[in-house]
Amino acid sequence: MKKTWKNFKVPNFRNLDTDLVLHNMIFVVIYIGAILMFFSYMLWPLILDFKVKYIEERKQNLILTEVQKDFDSSKDRLVGLLTNNKSLLSRLNNAKSQNIITDLLAQYFSKKSMRLLSSHIDEESQIKTTLYQIQVQTDDIGKFWEFITALGESDTSIIISLPVQIQKASMQSRIYDIVFNVETAYNVYKLNPEIKQIVDSALRKK
């Protein structure tokens, strides 16, 4: 049978016990409050711990980001410095100065001698300088200047120390005795592996 609004009965709330309803509502509120307080008491330390960890992680990430930016900036400046001074740094990092001098002496002169005068490491710059005295004989002064040019074009730090003494072996001789000093410089500073890799990479680029 179909229900109609006419057949609908409005509940009668007059017989409700208002005190009981009130007591039930107060109990429900107190019960829910107690549950919320219990969970808050249990979860609050976890929430605080999570908050502290989150803040610390944020700080660490910010610090790491700034450190990485500074490192990248310093690396770029270092690469720029190395690129701009590539020729000089390549020479200072070449430890074969003595071998180069010896090979060139053998190439240009049949009679020659080379004597070590001094060797010194500057503690501040970590550059090792070595001074040699060289004596050669030649019948062609042009060969000596070719030798000097070859030294200058070699990939090493070699400086001819003045004066250069040139004199004939005798009044009638066409043989010249030439005495001069040569100073070499070499970088002995030990870089850490990461920086050394950057330096080597920059110096290898053409």
UniProtKB/TrEMBL annotation:
Protein name listed in UniProt:
Membrane protein
What keyword terms does UniProt attach to this protein? Membrane, Transmembrane, Transmembrane helix
Sequence intervals crossing the membrane: 20-44
In terms of superkingdom, the source organism counts as Bacteria
